[in-house]
């Protein structure tokens, strides 16, 4: 039986997995900053999953195939983005060479597209990192099985995408999480802040990270000074982050509520990935 989000959210051991996941996502970003930064906001991340799922075969009984019209309608129907935003995203992916015309054009009514090797490798790293972390929790063999037959990735991903799109705990984890994750590069900044946590005591209102350099964050994640300061100021205004000494001096702290939003999001996401992996690979 797959692990439930409720079980993960209640398991203090999962916090170590949360920190490991944050660091793994940062490592993937550092390896491929251009493609990772494109998907470092919630809306683009959801659209990327939608595109992969349509290509591999979204589990709705419809023949698999990714083309612009179908993608745009899917994104709009599932309230991920507007029609114009979805169409622009497709054009950007083609321009960045993360999408290309499909090598086997079986549908003459539409221009079929497919992910390039660069895009597929990026998703593969993302998925295998999550399977590795799940295996660390229960001693399972998900990573080994998926790595032995990479064709299973195309079966697992549509199940993940469908569940993510249909799960409020992933799409709307909370006010502060949404603030970061809907901003350009905001998800990376949030991962970075969480990766700095020395631990998590649920009884404390705040957890100190120590001194945090805004210059280092800007340099790592290609985010402007104005954008970063606005993002952190908005989070501070709702009491989710703060500094021991004003203005922005001393140790940076994160609120318990913000950390729990991140924790619960990760629990919901990992439960989805585990269920999809079990459906394709069998019990862990």
Number of strands: 5
| Cα-atom radius of gyration | 19 Å
Note the beta-strand portion.
Answer: 5-15%
Query: Oligomeric state of the chains?
Result: single chain
Biggest beta sheet attributes: 3 strands, antiparallel
Annotation field: number of helices: 15
- Compute the average pLDDT: 91
How many separate structural domains?
1
SSE string, helices as H and strands as E: HHHHHHEEHHHHHHEHHEEH
**By helix and strand content, what is the structural category?**
mainly alpha
Q: Poorly predicted ranges (pLDDT <50, ≥5 residues)?
A: none
Strand order of the largest sheet: 3-5-4
Shape: globular
Structure summary:
By secondary structure, this protein is mainly alpha-helical. It has helices spanning 5-10, 13-31, 33-38, 42-56, 68-77, 83-95, 117-138, 142-148, 153-166, 168-171, 175-181, 186-195, 214-221, 225-237, 256-281, and strands at 99-101, 113-115, 206-210, 241-245, 249-255. It has one domain (1-283).
What this model shows, in words?
The chain is mainly α and 284 residues long. The protein has one domain (1-283). The protein is 63% helix and 8% strand. It contains 15 helices and 5 strands. The protein has helices at 5-10, 13-31, 33-38, 42-56, 68-77, 83-95, 117-138, 142-148, 153-166, 168-171, 175-181, 186-195, 214-221, 225-237, 256-281, and strands at residues 99-101, 113-115, 206-210, 241-245, 249-255. The strands form 2 sheets. It has a 3-stranded antiparallel beta sheet with strand order 3-5-4. A hairpin with a 3-residue loop joins strand 4 (241-245) and strand 5 (249-255). Helix 7 runs antiparallel to helix 8 (142-148). The longest helix has 26 residues, at 256-281. The protein is globular and about 60 Å long. The N and C termini lie close together (8 Å).
